[in-house]
Amino acid sequence: MPSLHAISVAWTNNSFAAGLSFSSTEKKIVEAFSEFGKVIEAKLVMDKARNRPKGYGFVTFAEKEAAEKACEGMNGKLLDGRAVYVRF
């Protein structure tokens, strides 16, 4: 079981991304967000009944500063033809 410190650090390096296209892939998200720092993981929340993304997901960065930069730099930017809304 991870320590409380590890859980805290993991959450501070996460960004929430909404407004994603249903055709977005985790690979495309990693490519777009890696402009701001090393991306550890991108997770799209999937609609299992339709087998497609629900339009939002999470990006985990190696460093908190990269997550903050991504929030500023990607918020409102077009990705796959849709404006992305990013929160840290």
TrEMBL record:
<dbReference type="InterPro" id="IPR035979">
    <property type="entry name" value="RBD_domain_sf"/>
</dbReference>
<dbReference type="InterPro" id="IPR012677">
    <property type="entry name" value="Nucleotide-bd_a/b_plait_sf"/>
</dbReference>
<dbReference type="Pfam" id="PF00076">
    <property type="entry name" value="RRM_1"/>
</dbReference>
<feature type="domain" description="RRM">
    <location>
        <begin position="13"/>
        <end position="88"/>
    </location>
</feature>
<dbReference type="InterPro" id="IPR000504">
    <property type="entry name" value="RRM_dom"/>
</dbReference>
<dbReference type="InterPro" id="IPR052462">
    <property type="entry name" value="SLIRP/GR-RBP-like"/>
</dbReference>
<protein>
    <submittedName>
        <fullName>TRANSFORMER-2-RELATED</fullName>
    </submittedName>
</protein>
<keyword id="KW-0694">RNA-binding</keyword>
<dbReference type="GO" id="GO:0003723">
    <property type="term" value="F:RNA binding"/>
</dbReference>
